[in-house]
Amino acid sequence: MLKINNLHKTFNAGTINAKTALNGLDLTLNDGDFVTVIGGNGAGKSTMLNAIAGVWKPDFGSIEIDGVDATNMPEHKRAAFLGRVFQDPMKGTAPDMEIAENLAIAARRGTKRKLIWGIKKDERKKYKELLATLELGLETRLSCKVGLLSGGQRQAITLLMATLRRPKLLLLDEHTAALDPKTAAKVLEITDKLVNENKLTTLMITHNMHDAIAHGNRLIMMHEGKVIVDVSGEDKKKLTISELLGLFEKASGSAFASDKVMLSK
Prior knowledge:
The chain is built from ten helices and ten strands. It has 265 residues and is of the alpha/beta class.
């Protein structure tokens, strides 16, 4: 579903502020893979997601999504088959619109718009059923403005919106980092449910080593713009945090040094 080949990206190239963010990145995801991504600051995690989404154009290398070369495809065209949830709960939704209106926008993504009533009765019924699966009580608040919801509730709605039309690839960029631990756990539970039920190919960046091990069927660690550790299947299920740190040290030749990640072990 995703094939990244020898991807390079340097910001401010040719200046004293030059920063190589991706340095020969190679990554292949099969249909239905749920891959957690972890690494220190500056490892290239978010730059990789931005490259996939078309925010940045790589200096060279290629990106294929479901067999289609998307390397030079504009961001707005890729949006038709990508779903994305950001770290900031304020992104991904329209705060001054109702919950039902936000879901309706997501449901119509990539389709031709017509001059008809915005949301039909059967659509409201469908949205109510979808919201009930979140177990957050939002099914009774369809007319509530999204801006009045908590961060966790907004992230849960953003997840619904991102998966409503079953994207070819779901990108989760530390989507629980701004939430308190209890709310983050609930959003991760919802994430697992949506990904597994819809069999979505997913990349989830996290700074929490425990979450990286506990979720998904595959884990990758990035360092200096490339993947240096790739664990899947039974090996991932049996992995411990100390073993993961050992794999990193062996592959990189140095100790893992990210305070943000280490504090969230």
